Amino acid sequence: MGSLVGSLALVTACGGAEDDTARTPRPSKSSAAPGAGIVAPARIEVIAGPAGCKAEIRTEADELREGLCHSEQADYRITTFPAEKYKEAWLDAASVYGGTYLVGPRRVVSAEAEHLEQARDKLGGTVRRLKGAS
Questions:
Q1: Average model confidence (pLDDT) for the chain?
Q2: N or C: which terminus of the chain has fewer CB atoms within 10 Å of its end residue's CB?
Q3: Could you give the C-alpha distances from 75 to 29, 96, 113, in angstroms and in order?
Q4: What sign does the dihedral 113-34-90-23 (CA atoms) show?
């Protein structure tokens, strides 16, 4: 997925200089994961805690921050974004590859599909299946 950062840069470079706050409401405390006490948007290090692992930050860029963490149950790739528009551009680019992701406010978590349901119980969000290129 390293090429997604380049794709994201290309996608966002082609977009206008719109103000993201005009279209995207600020997340509220109601977007917190049930029982987990995580208020969105959360940092990678905060998201990794309920997953039972400590994140190793792999990418720090203007458009996104990405970390990997390994728990006894699964390996997770956690990506956070400074604005919803960057998350949506990342998901558009990722749709070429397909896959299943746990998507929350300004964040995407990748793992084996069966582990995403468990993570959703702790983190909140929606499990989304993206179709790959045919």
A1: 76
A2: C
A3: 27, 22, 11
A4: positive
Q: What is the pTM of this model?
A: 0.69
- How far, in whole angstroms, is CA 105 from its chain's centroid? 8
At which residue do the structure tokens 């995403």 appear?
Answer: 116
Pick the range with the lowest mean pLDDT from 13-27, 49-63, 112-126. 13-27
DSSP codes of every residue in 37-82: -PPSS--HHHHHHHHTS--EEEEE-SS-EEEEEE-SS-EEEEEE-S
Comparing 26 with 124, which gets the higher pLDDT?
124
Has residue 4 got a pLDDT over 50?
no
CA angle 86, 79, 30 (to 5 degrees): 80
Q: Chain-centre distance of CA 92, in angstroms?
A: 13
- Rounded Cα gap, residues 88 and 100, in angstroms: 15
Pairing of strands 75-80, 56-60: unpaired
